Amino acid sequence: MSFVFPPAEPVSVPVQGQSSRFPVHRIYCVGRNYAEHAKEMGFTGREPPFFFLKPADALVLALPGQTATMPYPSLTHDLHHEIELVVAIGTGGRNIAAADAHKHIFGYAVGLDMTRRDLQGEMKKQGRPWCIGKGFDHSAPIGPITPAAEVPSIAEATIHLDVNGQQRQHSNVSKLIWNIAETIEHLSAAWELQPGDLIYTGTPEGVAAVVAGDTLDGSVEGLQGIRVTIA
Ligand code: MN
Q1: How far is the CA of 31 from the centre of ligand 1 (A)?
Q2: What is the pLDDT of residues 75-99, one digit of tens each?
């Protein structure tokens, strides 16, 4: 096959303990999936889960023992951090029942759903898509994927984020409004999941702004943590 210009390299994420990498298909994100974060964004009550996407090439790999760099994005004056558990899909499917969801999970990673909050807020106000606030270049830092079998207690894992050594977000995956299995059930009713899909499952409370020079340390118990600096 020939191309009119060279196609982009496939996007992939390293897998803990394996030399083979996880090839990325799509990045799905869940909105407002922890009650205390929904409250801080001005919402209460359990609503059906809702989703948005980021382009696969928005990933920024944060490798163990290294500090990844995320450039401060254009157009914003309010870049927010959202620490999230990321679910990596290994087996696709549609209309997956929550009870079967675990069969489709390859593993988990720590991710940051970086957000141009001012632009997202303006789009919300105008009833326009969130893309410019959420799906921008370098908006999805991620650490290596740990195979699911190695983190059997992910559903009760602590999740936290420090900025410059100060705690900003601290919660537990058990506080997800829609848990991992329920999220897969809802998501796979709307899209046919494919091997290589990533799901950013939502952020707990404590979201706030970062500026150039800040260093973010994110972790989920049982997974490889990530360190990202804003340039
Ligand atoms: Mn988020």
Answers
A1: 6
A2: 999 999 999 999 999 999 999 999 9
Cα 20 to averaged position of ligand 1 atoms, centre (Å): 28
Q: What domains lie within the chain, and their CATH numbers?
A: 12-230 (3.90.850.10)
Ligand 1 centre to CA of 3 (Å) is 36
Q: How far apart are CA 203 and CA 93, in angstroms?
A: 25
Kindly give the distance from the C-alpha atom of residue 112 to the centroid of ligand 1, in angstroms, as a whole number: 8
CA atoms of 62 and 83, how far apart (whole Å): 13
Torsions phi, psi of 107, nearest 5? -175, -165
pLDDT at 82: 98
Distance 80 CA to ligand 1 centre (A): 10
Tally of residues, the chain: 231
pLDDT digits 0-9 by tens, 151-190: 999 999 999 999 999 999 999 999 999 999 999 999 999 9
pLDDT at residue 44, as a whole number: 83
Distance 84 CA to ligand 1 centre (A): 7
Residue whose C-alpha is closest to residue 159's, from 225, 114, 70: 225
CA of 216 to the centre of ligand 1 (A): 16
| CB burial readout 90-120, b (16+ within 10 A) else e | bebbeebeeeebeebbbbbbbbbbbbbbbbb
**Beta pairing, strands 59-61 & 140-142:** parallel
Output the pLDDT for position 16.
Answer: 97
